[in-house]
Every structure is written in structure tokens, then in C-alpha cells.
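RECORD TYPE: inverse folding
INPUT: C-alpha cells
STRUCTURE:
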């Protein structure tokens, strides 16, 4: 681990094609915890099958990983030389149209759920919809339930109005686990200043994405450019609200991009002439072994050691410790700001 980042290292979004090689790279990179996607468009039963797959990995590699469920598991991972893996849903598909499944998913270890993934859902509008109608009737009820249980509301793929309403409605801080500022790179998935400011005012966190489509100049984006973007965001909303959510999809086959974007909601034929494939990662971040380099890059643009540690994981750790506790264990479930 780099001397520039003495704290815990947390990546708050990955969707890698997990293998022993990747698990060992997590340890080589000093990564104490990851938030991993266990569902995009899967229904409840399919999500359970994905959890079974992860349980198998936990049993096969107990020296490298374990299932994280509470914030303290990050500290335990550091002490034991392992990586805590926290489950998240990138869509609300697994709860189908049954609010009771929110608690069931939480019992199974899910700690994050996006209210929508690009499209309109039963809970909120996605960022690619022509009209963002905000949080739905069911969405309001699910937010209350997620707050009660200690499941984080993630609005990374949601529209602006829906995100602002989620921040206002939630009694606990929400997260945008993987996105960048829209002003730096104006793509639909990145977040406008209005959202970033509201997110911070509500005590929430932004995880900076290293997925090339979210980066200025794509895979050619330099580490310096990325870290300067982080610095400008710190000027806007404060360093305490910043972390990493790399959106790393290491070793996934290109067909997975089709699943992410298309799911089962369209019959439009795949474009064989311009196929959707995973973009090339920047040279400075190809996998988990490269996390120390990010810490060094942040220090090079002027962040103090404590600020580097915060961005690399300490801010997420604080957020986890507050957010994963059930509402009864907090001050009446009221929003807590750092």
C-alpha cells in the first residue's frame, strides 16, 4: 500500500468476472473492501442464484475474502489480511413488485440497491428516460423500508429529478457509488453540480468512476486529469464526501455489456456493425493492483495524507458504519452528516 494512503482502501463498485487471480490482486492492491454487483436485471430467484455463487467463492477462498455485512467488517478485513465483499443491486428488479423482498434481500446480505438502472423502474426514473417523473409511490415506501433496515439508496444510474427527490425523502444519507461530475465530462450518466451539492448537503458520498465511458478522453484519460477532477470536486462539495467507485469490470466478456444495457426489456437487434464492447481501461488502472497508484496521484495534485486516506476508503468506512446499522441503532433513524 502506498505511503500516501495509510487508511483503509475501499472500492464502492465492482463487477469483475471473479477468479482466484482477481481475488489475489485485491490483496496485492491492499483493498480492504469492495461493493460488488450481484444483480442488474435479474429477478429475485436469479439473484439468489448469484448469491449462491458468491457463497461458493467465500467457501473456496476463506483466506482471501468474506461476506461483509457491517461497517466493522472493513476493519476486520484489514486485521485479517482479507477483503470484505459487500453485496449490491444495480436495479430494483430483484424485489419485483413486493416490498417484503427488500427485507429478504437485506437478510441475504444485500447492503446497496439502486432505485433504477438507466430506464424507468417501479421506484424511480433512469437517467436515459426522456422524462424523469421522480420517485414513484412504491419508491417512497421502499425508501422508508431501506432506511429502516440499513440498506443504502444508490442513485448512480437514476435521473436528476429522481436523485434529488431521493436525497430529500431519505432520512439517511444516500450514495452515488460510481459516477463523475457532468461538468468535467458531459455524458448522461455523470452528475450535474446540482445533484453533487445536494448529495453532500444530505451527508452522502460520491464514488468516482474509472469506467472509460465516464472519463474525459475515455481510456486515454491520464491519472493527472482524473486526480485534478477529484480536486475540483473537493472544492465544490468537500473532500469528506468523496470516495472511489471504480466500476471495474475486469475479465468480463463483451456479451456482459449487452446484458447491462439491454437486459430483457427490448427486442431491438444487436448492432453487428458497431457492437457494444467493453472499452479499454486507462493504463494507470487495469485492476485492483493499481489502487496504490491512485493514492500517489491524489497526493501529487496536492491532497494531504489525511485527505488521500479519506478518498481511498476512510470516507466510505465512516459511511458504511453509519449506514449499515438498522434505524433503531441510530439517532431515531435521522439523517447523519459527517
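DESIGNED SEQUENCE:
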Amino acid at each position: 500500500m502506498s505511503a500516501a494512503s495509510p487508511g483503509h482502501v475501499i472500492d464502492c463498485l465492482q463487477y469483475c468476472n471473479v477468479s482466484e487471480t482477481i481475488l489475489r490482486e485485491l490483496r496485492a492492491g491492499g483493498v480492504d473492501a469492495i461493493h460488488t454487483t450481484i444483480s442488474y436485471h435479474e429477478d429475485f430467484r436469479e439473484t439468489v442464484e448469484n448469491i449462491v455463487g458468491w457463497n461458493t467463492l467465500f467457501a473456496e477462498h476463506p483466506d482471501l475474502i468474506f461476506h461483509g455485512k457491517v461497517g466493522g467488517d472493513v476493519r476486520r478485513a484489514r486485521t485479517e489480511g482479507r477483503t470484505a465483499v459487500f453485496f449490491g443491486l444495480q436495479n430494483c428488479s430483484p424485489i419485483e413488485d413486493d416490498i417484503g423482498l427488500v427485507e429478504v434481500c437485506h437478510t441475504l446480505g444485500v447492503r446497496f440497491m439502486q432505485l433504477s438502472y438507466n430506464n424507468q423502474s417501479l421506484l424511480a426514473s433512469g437517467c436515459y428516460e426522456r422524462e424523469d417523473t421522480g420517485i414513484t409511490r412504491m419508491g417512497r415506501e421502499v425508501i422508508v423500508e431501506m432506511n429502516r433496515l440499513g440498506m443504502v439508496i444508490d442513485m448512480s444510474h437514476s435521473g436528476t429529478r429522481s436523485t434529488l427527490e431521493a436525497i430529500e425523502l431519505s432520512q439517511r444519507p444516500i450514495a452515488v457509488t460510481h459516477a463523475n461530475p457532468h461538468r468535467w465530462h458531459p455524458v448522461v450518466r455523470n452528475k450535474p453540480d446540482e445533484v453533487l451539492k445536494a448529495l453532500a448537503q444530505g451527508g452522502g458520498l460520491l464514488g468516482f468512476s474509472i469506467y472509460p465511458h465516464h472519463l474525459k478522453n475515455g481510456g486515454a484519460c491520464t491519472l493527472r486529469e482524473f486526480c485534478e477532477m477529484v480536486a475540483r470536486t473537493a472544492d465544490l462539495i468537500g473532500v469528506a464526501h468523496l470516495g472511489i467507485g471504480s466500476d471495474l469490470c475486469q475479465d468480463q466478456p463483451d456479451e456482459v455489456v449487452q446484458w447491462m444495457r439491454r437486459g430483457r426489456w427490448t427486442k431491438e437487434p444487436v448492432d453487428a456493425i458497431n457492437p457494444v464492447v467493453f472499452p479499454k481501461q486507462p493504463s494507470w488502472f487495469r485492476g485492483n493492483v493499481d489502487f496504490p497508484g491512485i493514492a500517489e496521484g491524489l497526493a501529487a495534485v496536492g491532497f494531504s495524507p489525511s485527505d488521500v486516506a479519506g478518498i481511498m476508503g476512510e470516507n466510505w468506512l465512516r459511511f458504511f458504519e453509519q449506514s449499515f446499522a438498522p434505524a433503531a441503532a441510530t439517532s431515531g433513524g435521522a439523517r447523519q452528516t459527517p
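NOTES: Strands lie at 10-14, 33-39, 65-67, 83-89, 110-114, 152-154, 175-176, 205-208, 242-244.
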